[in-house]
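Anyone able to model this chain together with FE2/S2 (inorganic) cluster?
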Amino acid sequence: MTAEIFLNVNGQSHALKVPPVKRLSEVIRDDLSLTGTKVGCNAGDCGACTVLVDGEQVCACLTPVIQAEGRQVTTVEGLAEKGTLSDLQKSFARHGAAQCGICTPGMLMAATSLLNKDSDPSRETVEDALGGVLCRCTGYQKIVDAILDISSPDTRESPAAGSAVGSSITKVDAIEKLNGSEKYGADGIPKDALWVRILRSPHALARVGMGDLRAKVNEFDGITDFLTFQDIPFNRFGIYPVGKDQPVLSDGLVRYRGDAVVAVVGTREAITKITLEDLSVVFEPLDPVIGVHAAMDATALQLHEDKPGNILIEGTVDKGNIGDGLLGAAAISNGSFKTRFVEHAYIEPEAGWAQRVGDRVEVHATTQAVHMDRDEIASVLQIDKERVRVVPTACGGGFGGKLDVSIQPILAVAAMKYDRPVAYVYERPESMAASTKRHPSEISCRFAADKDGKLLIAEMTADFDTGAYASWGPTVAGRVPVHGSGPYFVPNVHITGRGVFTNGPPAGAFRGFGVPQAAIAHETMMDDLAEQLGMDRLEIRLINAIKVGEPTSTGQILKASAGMGPCLEVLKNKWHSLLEEAEDFNGRNDGVKRQGVGVGAMWYGIGNTSLSNPSTMEVGIDRDGKITLFNGAVDIGQGSNTILQQICADAAGLPVDQFTYVMGDSDLTKDAGKTSASRQTFVSGKAAELAGLDLKSQILRHANVSEEAKFNIQGGVLYIDDGAGVREIALSSLPADEKGMVFFGTGTFDPPTTPLDEHGQGDPYATYGFAAQIALVEVDTELGTTQVNKIIAAHDVGKAINPQQVEGQIHGGIAQGLGLALMEEYVPGVTENLHDYLIPTFGDMPEMEVLIVEDAEPLGPYGAKGVGEPGLVPTAPAIFGAVRHATGVRVTEAPLLPHRLKAALKRQEAMQ
Ligand code: FES
Ligand code: FES
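re: yes, here you go
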């Protein structure tokens, strides 16, 4: 039933024939093509769709369009006036308040609604007013700062040539994220696209039977086809060449709840109505294997033919001799720890579209790994990779979850088959059910120290539930043994990491690749040892902090940039102040509410573990003097588009504000590897530096001048000043290459690593990031709740290329670390939406202070390392240490939900 509805949106009147109950968000996006309003859940949980109706914020996804008739609707596109950003938008840009930007329109609209009523709100008022909008990237602090500071002028000047590095310039893609013009996966879908949707298994393990589905196509209006595994040329995908074990569509067995069964192709409306029951798909459920203990039991069903014992992979690091180390022990600690599945919960669900172009396929999708996607699509289609083009859309958050392909293979298959654009946008429950998760872990360990607190041994067995398919399981099992001893010098080490198949959701990459789970264990060991020896907890870490010249667990001698000690040193005074603050609080209160302080330390190898992971960057100048960085690294919100330009500009000796860029298009850029493992600043940044240097040397060579000559480009003219005078070279007079470039620089960097031997000895990473965080928490011992009041984070990043963005990464990491520690637990079939699966909101976040430590890495661009994952790793250990300090409860399970803490408090009481 349609009706004529009159809408006024951003001051423009529209008469639309639409169903009166159609969601306002759909009308705005689909009928009015105002895609600045985002959809993250379609259920009122995320606030991404927030718009104003008569000045009040509403969730457009829950508002029937009829309710907006005759009223003033304002979307993010209505905030800027005549193309000039509003003061609020400018403040977001100035404060770095948008990372991936997918939540930004909703945040801006909610803030506008507040500021219309209260032009001078308090921090609490802002947090309340924006409390319905979720952000997974920023940790919220910069958003609040931006709203409280809208009237300050921007006093920053664009850095001159050679001084971009170290400057907190505004993100180069900020304007698009702030005015709603940025195109994410669901925003650029052609109007004539067919739509596809995968019907998924409701069972964790079942045999599947289906009849001739094609014969049923005509039974349903708007349906073009049903695709089954028989339509997939090579029905397997996976990260590692030896781990291609996940079917695009099930070929007889489903191995987790959410596994793909049948793909429905048709109109957008029609595909949403079809169910597996409609198609008479029959499941024969089997007893699923849940959890690593069940999977490793001798009687367990073997889930993959070639993986006896359900062991995907095992990695070990062995150094020294544990028995010898124990001889001098004055303190020995043991422990077992457990963590659970954690969902990435990026606010942008998986989305994109594909089309056939001649004999090639072009896939536009939200992703973290353009060139890997291209290779995977080519493998599924069984065509040469040159016949696949991947064009990344803006990415509304990834955190590792968009490193695996999701929609891409089925889109490519359908686009080739029907020769029409084909689109796919996951609904939130599908995104959560189908996508990879953080590995649940079961970790046992034993650490020992001598009477002075010096570590003697680190022993650990870490089993990771890798779920139904391999995904990034081998990476986790390989990375954890290297990191399990913590950021310390330990002479005797024995650590094993295993990936174990179960019938859980596939566990993949999630900010840290298992290291956050291991850090909970090793940092509890450090607190145990400090307690036994009567030492200060920060002091024992400082005594053991690994230094330049010392060997790691893998025998790698750190040659430079080992900032663990300096991170702990800068925290020392604050640590003692917080301890006093907690003591004072506890002395003044009745004991129901208790404050505590904890510290967590970490290290993180930057880039792939013992594997080549090169990146290539290119930079060119065309005949008009336009400078373009051809950058194959995907910016998922962390800011690589900006950072890589800053580095390249300084290397080339040109001002960064003259740069533009092409990001990620696999036809236009070289492989820069995936955006993961905190590698883009270090690896692609070095490649960008080399490309900039190459460009500079070509210019100097062409002008036949020395290194000392200065040059700049204005209005298509290259001005060269060699000391003897200024020369002009009209760029339009120079021959251009096939890309239209008159000068073109290239740089490639592959960090030097070596393979690990059978004892796990070698140089797995070229450099490591280090960090320590301290937390102040307040525990309600009756309710079992934990409120984190403060986190102070010290991070050695080598060199902060853009300090504001470094801080933003750490804030976001802290938010996700807090979620891991206190609230996030994915349970298949139970927490498959953002209502039941809780992520930190404004109200959950503590005050955060970031202290940047710069212990330069000679291999990195201008000394830089990486910070994407390190931001998260120490947070949970610091919080757990603080809970223990407050209550005496030694935390061994994450998340520490109130019922778990209450039970632990009860156990503790019973033992006293
Ligand atoms: S899309 Fe409307 S609240 Fe999430
Ligand atoms: S910037 Fe808020 S979700 Fe990414």
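The longest strand covers residues 455-467.
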